[in-house]
Amino acid sequence: MTAQILIAIGSGSLVGFTLGLVGGGGSILATPLLLYAVGIAQPHIAIGTGALAVSVNAYANLIGHARKGHVQWTCAIIFALIGSVGALVGSTLGKAMDGQRLLFLFGLLMLVVGALMLRPRKAAGGRARPVDRRMCAATAAVAVLAGGASGFFGIGGGFLIVPALILATGMRTIDAVGSSLLAVGTFGLATAFNYALSGMIDWPVAIEFIGGGVIGGVVGMLLATRLSAQKNTLNRIFAALIFVVAGYVLYRSGSAAGAG
Q: What is the distance between the alpha carbons of residues 46 and 23, in angstroms, rounded to a whole number?
């Protein structure tokens, strides 16, 4: 087994762990890891490959969360289906943009979302609002925006989907994490399909990523369940992850643009 394969599997494990832990962030890690660790040269190929791997790992992690009752299926399905249309449109626009510029804009967006995730949330007594037409309508509206951003930046979009679900439904963070995995998988699949049409997926690396991600996802999910009882812990981990990776993405993409 070559060093490149081991790095790809290890990177996939880290991505899967992140998905299992916070229901997002997988693609935030996937694209930089594919570019700077695994060694994929072209940003768009890294984005397409990462989207496919994260999609499969998200669906795998969804099973564990569903067994623990952390998925609100009605709104999760609405969010995933409607948002996938936005993901297809967004990914088409993303493919047409310069790769380094796309990564730089992605880093800026992560900083904004990380700051929003640090805002304290009021306790809701551990109960989500009842599922009704108004809640599902709000979920669908937010899904279009989250799906479009997810597809444009070539990411599963968990870091957008989790707060979006909380905003639209009032559900607990752990339930938003579990429910978001359905949308992360569906958005990633739609994005990967779009990139595959243009030949922008490295299939062997994607398979290696998926294999490592299944293992990491199990560990992340177990840790997420334990942390769910601690107020705002998941949000703080989420925000810290976003800030760290955002800084690195901005540094690397900015340096590449300057060199060009």
A: 21
Q: What is the pLDDT of residue 197?
A: 95
pLDDT per residue over 135-162, tens digit each? 667 777 788 888 998 899 887 777 778 7
**pLDDT (tens digit per residue) in 4-19:** 899 999 999 988 887 7
Question: Model-level pTM?
Answer: 0.82
Domain ranges of the chain: 3-259
